[in-house]
Amino acid sequence: MKESSFEQAVQAYAIECEAIMATKAVLDKEAFAKAVGLLAKAERIATVGCGHSGFACMHFAHLLCCIERPARFLSPAEAIHGGSGFLQCGDVLVWASRGGKTDELFPILEIAQKKGAHILGVTENTASPLAAQSDVALALSIPREADKYDTQGTASFAATNIVFDTLAVALLNETGFQTEQFALTHPGGAVGKRLNG
Q1: Residue 133's pLDDT is what?
Q2: Quick count: other Cβ atoms within 10 Å of Cβ 33?
Q3: Do 97 and 50 contact (CB within 8 A), yes or no?
Q4: pTM > 0.90: yes or no
Q5: What distance in Å separates the CA atoms of residue 91 and residue 111, rounded to the nearest whole number?
Q6: How far apart are CA 49 and CA 107, in angstroms?
Q7: Burial (Cβ within 10 Å: 0-12, 13-18, ≥19) of residue 98
Q8: Cα–Cα distance, 134 to 72 (Å, whole number)
Q9: pLDDT tens digits for 136-187?
Q10: 122, 186, 192, 195 from 180: Cα distances, Å
Q11: Which residues lie below 8 Å from residue 64, measured CB to CB, with a gap of 6+?
């Protein structure tokens, strides 16, 4: 391996940490509280995004299910071919897009609005067209991506995930979720053995 390759790999730790701390610095307590309130009351939660943002949304849907908030990831393609029928009035659609201009998401937000669902966005561009259509938008701040070309969704993926992780942590507390509930739904793996031992 080239020495420069190892140096860039090590530098990625610092770059991604910087993105996480920069995102923490733009955390708006009022917007965050509104987001937690919407998610705590929703009967169903759908998450949607493209590329790395989509994978972060998949992760968030799983985290929500782990704390008994019924959620599912909607692929953008499936969402406009009937998948958005999952959403009902009062539910929450969560979207993620660093730039807030992802074309594939606009028709999904329109469907959610017409159905009376609430919309929660995660984006670096809180003045973006997608953010403008949202009930609440949580901000990201990504100084740069971790690769040398500043193009791969690395630091932005880490920052998006930390926003979703903090929402899940707050929801766990807000809803009074108990370890015993997780022991029931997660009997597998080392965690399941520890909780059910």
Answers
A1: 97
A2: 13
A3: yes
A4: yes
A5: 12
A6: 12
A7: buried
A8: 19
A9: 999 999 999 999 999 999 999 999 999 999 999 999 999 887 777 665 666 6
A10: 31, 10, 11, 8
A11: 39, 45, 70, 71, 168, 171
Backbone angles phi, psi at 32, to 5 degrees: -65, -45
**Two structure tokens written together for 134:** 């949202």
Residue type, 160: T
Pick from 97, 167, 83: which is nearest to 130 by CA? 97
Residue 157 is which amino acid? Answer: F
Token pair for 40: 């705590």
**Other CB atoms closer than 10 Å to residue 73's CB: what's the count?**
20
Q: Which two tokens stand for residue 43?
A: 């009967």
**Tens-place pLDDT, residues 6-63:** 999 999 999 999 999 999 999 999 999 999 999 999 999 999 999 999 999 999 999 9
Residue-level length of the chain: 197
Closest by CA position to 12, among listed 154, 149, 142, 124? 154
Model pLDDT, residue 183 = 59
